[in-house]
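thought: fold this chain, then report.
action: predict
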Amino acid sequence: MLTVRIHDLEQGRAVLDLAAARGTTVRLATAEGALSYLGVGYVRALEEALGVPLLADCGDEAGTLMAGLRTGLAWLCYKGQPAILARLRDMAAQKGALVLDAIPEPVMALEARDRGARRLALYLAALPGEQAPAENGARQGHEQDRQPIPDGNEEA
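observation:
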């Protein structure tokens, strides 16, 4: 299953809509180290708004990861010292949370400016047996966000 790194709610919704329109599933993760610069409250609210688990990347900041656990984040990634990782995993397990030391492969990191998740659309369109739907599967009520899905034949 593909892991897609996102930056905000708009991107997260676009990714989920594209995946649903293609009949596939994806994992969502924050951008690298985003938990420390976006803040745990923002990431928790993003996860709630998307309605799916969001893998929160805190880089090597153990304190940020612990703050994330306190706010209810249950799926985190820590890339720091192994001895600290072991302690963080123990703390997380006590709260029913999981701490990974890497983002699950394969990973696609969207750019912050990729509003329609165009790179993901091109990737999904290139998968064997996939056919582009008539529309991009944007959620109802977001007509202003609708853009045609690339069929993979356009230049990037």
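thought: worth noting. The CA atoms of residues 22 and 130 lie 7 Å apart.
final: tokens above.
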